[in-house]
Amino acid sequence: MGFIVTEGMEFISGWGGKWPAPAKLNLMLRITGRREDGYHLLQTVFQMLDLCDWLAFRPVADGSVSLLSPIPGVPEQEDLTVRAANLLKLHTGCEAGVCIEIEKKLPMGGGLGGGSSDAATTLVVLNRLWGLRLPKQELMALGLRLGADVPVFVFGHAAWGEGVGEELQPIMLPEQWFVIIKPDCHVNTKEIFCSEGLTRDSKVIKMSDFLAGEESNDCTEEVCKMYPRVRDAMNALSVYAGARLTGTGACVFAQFPSKEEAEVVFQALKNEWLVFLAKGLNESPLYKKLEQE
Ligand SMILES: C[C@](O)(CO)[C@H](O)COP(=O)(O)OP(=O)(O)OC[C@H]1O[C@@H](n2ccc(N)nc2=O)[C@H](O)[C@@H]1O
Ligand SMILES: Nc1ncnc2c1ncn2[C@@H]1O[C@H](COP(=O)(O)OP(=O)(O)OP(=O)(O)O)[C@@H](O)[C@H]1O
């Protein structure tokens, strides 16, 4: 059941070939308050991974936005890539059209931010393809309208995040290796943020506290209580190294200084769990590719 990251395969001949939409991990997640609209104030640390969805964009003449093959369970017009493209058209008055293909590699509902990253890649690539020249800050603000995790993927760098996750400062982190278990359950982010027992009054800390080892995730206890399979995954990974939850789950992860050390744990878990081996990245592969175009 294990899954080693491999390069995406060629699938359609879209503009610029295929574009990465990397996963993220929340290396720490503190909930420090709640806004009047119900959204939670967070302190978090985002790092991208070399584990990606792959997207292709084919210009179409009739001004429509469509998906070549919608993701099962997600209606085409609700897909975050379609919503991102339509939002960009509405915001700029651009009359161009696009057909999008998604090669889905990231598990959904896993706290790896796949849908958000797909949306961010769509905003960044179409901004270039359609010659819109919107600055990054404006794309991030548009992205926030699609979800709290979209801005960091537009930002494109490992980041210290505050607000609802949209106030971002770049951070340089060691590019370690991660073993990530995706338990066979789908955690609903909204359900976790609505749950009674969630810690919402964590002390505000500084970036230096995180760097000194403060790496907790305030959602862990509640998610493990509501989703026993997440607790099982934490226990399975804890045998080898400190296990943490990303976002609101369901994925749990442990970090290792070398690929070799991570590989040993990956091999030990892969028969029983859906497990990924991935490298932490400070710079998003999306921008690396954009620079090459
Ligand atoms: C848990 C994280 O993944 C950490 O990075 C994000 O905060 C969640 O980001 P996301 O999946 O893009 O979430 P959204 O689609 O914006 O929000 C889903 C639901 O989660 C709740 N939500 C989300 C983010 C936040 N800071 N406070 C919240 O209370 C809201 O009820 C919202 O309706
Ligand atoms: N392109 C897309 N890819 C994945 N999910 C999408 C997409 N478009 C819409 N969705 C919806 O978004 C939901 C959340 O998917 P996603 O993969 O982003 O979860 P997640 O990793 O838990 O996100 P987060 O870490 O941001 O909470 C899915 O269950 C699906 O209904």
Summary keywords:
binds adenosine-5'-triphosphate; 10 helices; 293 residues; Ribosomal Protein S5, domain 2; disordered N terminus; binds 4-diphosphocytidyl-2-C-methyl-D-erythritol; 31% helix; eleven-stranded mixed β-sheet; alpha+beta; Alpha-Beta Plaits; 11 strands
Report the total helices. Answer: 10
Bound molecules: 4-diphosphocytidyl-2-C-methyl-D-erythritol, adenosine-5'-triphosphate
**What's the architecture of the largest domain, going by CATH?**
2-Layer Sandwich
Which structural class should the secondary elements be placed in?
Answer: alpha+beta
Describe the main β-sheet briefly.
11 strands, mixed
Q: Which CATH top level class of the largest domain fits? A: Alpha Beta
Explain the layout of strands and helices.
Layout: E1 3-4, E2 18-34, E3 40-60, E4 65-67, H1 80-92, E5 97-103, H2 114-129, H3 136-144, H4 150-155, E6 159-162, E7 167-170, E8 177-182, H5 189-194, H6 207-211, H7 220-226, H8 228-238, E9 244-245, E10 252-256, H9 259-269, E11 274-281, H10 285-292
Parallel strand pairs: 1-11, 4-5
Antiparallel strand pairs: 2-3, 3-5, 3-6, 3-11, 6-7, 8-10, 8-11, 9-10
Bound molecules: 4-diphosphocytidyl-2-C-methyl-D-erythritol and adenosine-5'-triphosphate.
4-diphosphocytidyl-2-C-methyl-D-erythritol binds next to strand 3 and helix 5.
